Amino acid sequence: MTTKSLEMSRELLLGNILRSAAHIVPDKVCFTFENQEFTYAQVESKALQLAGWIQEQGIKKDQKIGFLFKNSIEFVEMFWAITLSGGVGVPMNFRLSSEELLYMINDSDTELLFIDKEYVDTIQSIRNELPNLRTIIVVSEQLVEGMLSYNHLFDETYDYIPEQQSDNDACIIMYTSGTTGKPKGAVLTHKNLVVNAQNLVRELDLDMNVKQLIVAPLFHTAALASLVFCTLARGTAVIQKDFVPNAVLQTIQEEKITTLFLVPAMWNFVVNTPNIGDYDLSSVRTCIAGAATCPVKLKEQIMEHFKIEGMYDLFGQTETSPVTIAMKPADSMRKSAALGKPILNIEVRIVDGNMNDVAVGEIGEIVYRGPTVMKEYYKNPEETAAAFEGGWFHSGDLVSADEEGFIYIRDRKKDVIISAGENIYPAEIENLLYRHEAIFEVAVIGVPDAEWGESVKAFVVVKENKTLTKEEIIEYCFQNLASYKKPKFVEFLPALPRNTSGKILKQSLRDGIAIESK
């Protein structure tokens, strides 16, 4: 392993994580996919070949390369190749509509696009509206007219030439969830992603024995971070294409998985699998939840089934690469309502609207500063300036802190309900309702009220073989909350609308999208 210059050797470049591991443990299994094993040396060889081909196409530093895959071998190869090439990767959500992909491809100025065969028709339908897109490469056994074959990129050798890079250079553009309005492209640098991985290896106490199951979509920043920190630890990542609860349990048993990250919605399905007791889950030492708040009742179920004394909760957002706060197992039940404490390399403040620090116990917006905070929103200087007002990144999350420094989520600023002048935080009501034995999922929003300004409405998914009425829910809240916080309206749904990162789409609930009442 060599580097082009002394300057580059001093930089925190993401691709060097793979290259270093391939140099130290070349024959160790880097990842497995569909019963195929790939060593660090094999992954490095494929990534360097692809990086050389990308450079052969004239892609220079800061030019954009999109990829549209489910979790797969090709996703991993392309991700590492792009980090080495000098180009900027744009992972794309495979569940997006053609119109949404059209926006993302054009907004990001993508010039090369790698896709899986199942998305050929989608991309063909918008091809004439993509003026910047030069070449499409498809993973397919059959040739597709107007597209290059991914496998044919390995027919001849392409020499990889290390591009002069700085760790402050853009590495990937991660588009935000877009729960409101059009998604924004968060530009994450090499340093952002490397430092985040270093933070997590330390916080999670990982070593070379880690065997991480990755089933959350890799285009999402949390799952991608799992891939990177597992590589930094020189462990093994077991990657699954789709989330199927029984398949997750079967893989844990067969592969002796040690570390498992799932968003709370996924954890909920796993622990409620009817035959979960039939699987040997004893290899799992580290259970991690993130991307959304994990209710206390769900934590208790996870700990019961996986025989662990506590679990990790990770909190952050796309723009912070993503983790900013962690709850460690030792505190997971003692401080069960908290998010945790700020992690290494992250500066945190809780401020009011004038950027003044609030007192202990008071609610304010959490703002961040540090080497994992994004560089900017791509081509969006106004939103970038607003996000970094006062020199700190504004998260939009309302929190408070206790005397020990543990941070508690109160809500998103945009989700606060104001009823008769009182602030009502939906997260407080949701956490209560999740403790009800008949409730599987819940979301709370504010709805217009001519008399009070806004009133509370709860959307509830009832567990199978359970029954519940609106009156029972309201009475349960009345017994456990101040009267003004109890829901005035309750609607029962078969499922809550979510985006691919597992976050509930409250705007869809407000708009009546994807709602089908029971």
Description of the structure:
It is a single chain. Helix 3 packs across helix 4 and helix 5 crosses helix 6. Helices cover 29% and strands 25% of the residues. With 518 residues, it is α/β, with parallel strands linked by helices. Among the domains are: 6-27 and 39-189, Rossmann fold (3-Layer(aba) Sandwich); 420-511, ANL, C-terminal domain (GMP Synthetase, Chain A, domain 3), CATH 3.30.300. The chain contains 15 helices and 26 strands. Strand 14 (312-316) and strand 15 form a beta hairpin. The strands form six sheets. The protein has a nine-stranded mixed beta sheet, with helices on both faces. The model is unreliable at 513-518 (pLDDT under 50).
What are the main properties of this structure?
15 helices; 25% strand; GMP Synthetase, Chain A, domain 3; globular; Rossmann fold; alpha/beta; 518 residues; 9-stranded mixed sheet
CATH class of the domain at 6-27 and 39-189: Alpha Beta
Q: Can you list the strand order of the major beta sheet?
A: 2-1-11-10-12-13-14-15-16
| Topology, number of strands | 26
Average per-residue pLDDT, rounded, comes to: 90
Name the poorly predicted regions: 513-518
Coarse shape: globular
**Remind me, CATH topology of the domain at 6-27 and 39-189?**
Rossmann fold
* Distance between the ends: 60 Å
CATH architecture of the domain at 6-27 and 39-189: 3-Layer(aba) Sandwich
CA radius of gyration = 23 Å
Superfamily (CATH H level) name of the domain at 6-27 and 39-189: ANL, N-terminal domain
- Percentage of residues in DSSP E strands: 25-35%
Which oligomeric form is depicted?
Answer: single chain
**Number of helices in the DSSP assignment:** 15
- Main sheet overview: 9 strands, mixed
Fraction of helical residues: 25-40%
Structural class: alpha/beta
